[in-house]
Amino acid sequence: DHSIASKDEL
Amino acid sequence: MNVFRLAGDMTHLLSIMVLLLKIHSMKSCAGISLKTQELYVLVFATRYLDIFTTYFSFYNTVMKIVFLVTSFSIVWYMRHHKVVRQTYDRDQDTFRHHLLVIPCFLLALLINHRFTVREVLWTFSLYLEAVAILPQLVLLQRSRNIDNLTGNYVFFLGAYRGLYLFNWIYRYMAEKSQLRWIPWISGLVQTALYADFFYYYIKSWKKREKLQLPA
C-alpha cells in the first residue's frame, strides 16, 4: 500500500 | 534507513533537546513562541494517529512517543510552570496561529492522497508543519536579544527538514520510491521558510557575533 509505505518517516 | 534520514531525525531530536535544556536549566522560555509550540503539538497529534494501529519499527514507535511527549511538555512548561511561564514573551508572540490551521485543513481536504479521516489528518499535519515555524520566526525578528540556545534551536529545526529533502532524493534515486508530491512540496516550502534565518545565522557564526535578525 503506497500511502502506508510512505509513513515510516517521522 | 539512509544517512540523511537518520541525520534529519537526529537534528530534529537535538533541536528539542536544546529547547528543553533552555527550559530546564535556565528556567526560561524567552524568545520561544508558544504559538509555534502549540502548532507542533497539533502536528504530531494528527500525524501519529497510526501509533497504535500500524507498527513500522521499534525506532519509529519510540521516536513518535518522544516527539509527542516532549511537544506536550514544552507547551505545559510555557503555560503552567510558575517560573518558566513568567519568561514568556506574551506581548511579542502575537501571530494569530489559528489562521494557519484553517487553510491547512481546507487544503488537506482538497489535496490528499486518499479521502479518509486518517489520510486527510496526516496530510493536514504535513501542511501545518510546513508553516508552523512562522510565529517563531516573527518572534525572533522582534527580539533584540536572541540567546544562543534559541538560535541553535531554530537552526537544528530547519536543518532537520533540509536533511529530509536529501533523504527523499536518495530514496527516489536509490530505492526507486514512488513520487510523493505532498510531503516533498510541503518539505520544500518548510525548508525555504528558513532561508533568511540560515543566512543570518551563518553570517553571525562566521563573524562570531551575536545573532540578530533585521527588523
From TrEMBL, chain B:
PROSITE patterns: ER_LUMEN_RECEPTOR_1 (PS00951), ER_LUMEN_RECEPTOR_2 (PS00952). Keywords: Endoplasmic reticulum, ER-Golgi transport, Membrane, Protein transport, Receptor, Transmembrane, Transmembrane helix, Transport. The keyword Ligase does not apply. Pfam families: ER_lumen_recept. It is found in: Endoplasmic reticulum membrane. It is a multi-pass membrane protein. One of its GO terms (cellular component) is endoplasmic reticulum membrane. The keyword Transport applies. The chain crosses the membrane at residues 55-77, 98-115, 121-140, 152-170, 182-202. One of its GO terms (biological process) is protein transport. Belongs to the ERD2 family. This is ER lumen protein-retaining receptor. InterPro entries: ER_ret_rcpt. One of its GO terms (molecular function) is ER retention sequence binding.
